[in-house]
Amino acid sequence: MVQFSGARLDASFAALSDATRRGILERLGIADASITDLAEKFHMTLTGMKKHVGVLEQAGLVTTEKVGRVRTCKLGLRRLEEEAAWIERYRQLWDARFDELDKVVEELKQKENVDGRKKRQ
Amino acid sequence: MDVRKDSERTSIKNRTTVERKSDREVVVTRTFHAPAHIVFEAWTTPELFKQWWVPKSMGMILRSCEMDVRVGGRYRLEFEPDAMAFFGTYLEVTPHSRLVWTNDEGGEGGSVTTVTFEEKDGKTLLVLHELHPSKEALDAAGTGAADALVETFEQLDELLVTLDASVGRP
Fold it and tell me: What's the gap in Å between the CA of A23 and the closest CA on chain B?
C-alpha cells in the first residue's frame, strides 16, 4: 500500500486548483513543451509562466529539465510512480524485518507470562 | 496481485506503513501486540536484535552486533558475506519509549534515526523516523537497502517447499 504524505497531497491539490495550471498539465499531456512555448500558448509573461510551472513542479506534477538555454517541461507522473515504487520497496524491507521482530516479541511475551506465573505461585 | 489474497493477508498481518514526510525524512510505523518494554528489549539487546534485523530474504547474515545502549554509547553491526558495517552513536535513550541514534557509516553528517514506542491497551505503536542529510541520501538509502531484499529468495523458498512436498511421493 502506498501512502503519500499529506503535505504532498496538499501541494498537488493547491496546484490543481488553478485553471491555467490544469491547462498546462493538459498541454503537457499532449507533448513536452518549453516555458516559452507555454507562455505563448497561455498568453502570459515568461515570469508568470515560470511561477505556475514552479508550483506544478513543487507538487511533483511537472518536471523540468534545462538543456542549453531552453527549459523543457514534462508531466511528472513518472516521478510519482517512481516515488510510489521507492516507498513500496522500502516498506517491503521494513515489513520483512518487523515480521521477524514480531516473532521475537511473541517469544519474549510468552516467556514473561510463564515467568510471571511462576513468581505468583 | 490477487485482491482477495491480499486482503486476507492484511487481516492476519500487522500493517507496516511508510511515508515520506519530506525530501529528507521517511517515517515507518507498525503496531506490535506486546507491551512497550518487550518491544524495547528486542531493540536494545544484541542477542535479540540479531534475530530480526536482517530478515532471511536479505540474503545476508549479521555476523556481529555490539550495542552500548546509553547516551553517547556506540553500536556496530557487521555483515557477511561482504564485511559491510553499520555503526554510530546513541544520542537519546529513554527506556521503553525512545531511542535516537546516528548512522555514521557514510561519514560525517549521516542520517539520524529516532524510534518511539507508544504503549496503548497492551499494544505498542512503533514509529521509526529517519532524517537524512539530503534528498539524494534518502533516495539512495531506500533504493540500496531495499535492493538487498531480493524477491527471488522468496520465490526460491516457495520452490523448495514445493520440491520438499513432492519428494517421497510415489
Answer: 27
Q: Does any domain span residue B165?
A: no
Q: Which of A108, A110, A111 to mutate to test the interface with B (most CBs of B within 10 A)?
A: A108
Rg (CA), chain A: 25
Picking from A8, A83, A98, the nearest residue to B16 by CB comes out as: A98
Show pLDDT as tens, one digit a residue, over chain B (170 residues).
444 444 444 444 568 999 988 889 999 999 999 999 999 999 999 999 998 998 777 777 889 999 999 999 999 999 887 778 899 999 999 999 999 999 998 877 899 999 999 999 999 999 999 999 988 888 887 666 555 544 434 444 454 555 555 555 44
Residue contact B146–A90, C-beta within 8 A: yes
Q: ipTM of this model? A: 0.75
Please judge whether A94 and B48 are an interchain contact, meaning their C-beta atoms are less than 8 angstroms apart. no
Which residues form the domain of B93? 15-160
CB-CB neighbors (< 8 A) of A7 in chain B: 21-22
The C-alpha cell that represents A32 in the structure block: 513536452
C-alpha cell at B45: 539487546
pTM (predicted TM-score): 0.64
> Which residue, A31, A28, A91, is CA-closest to A61?
A28
Beta bridge partners of B119: B124
Assigned fold of A6-75: Arc Repressor Mutant, subunit A (1.10.10)
The span from the CA of A11 to the CA of A31, in Å, is 24
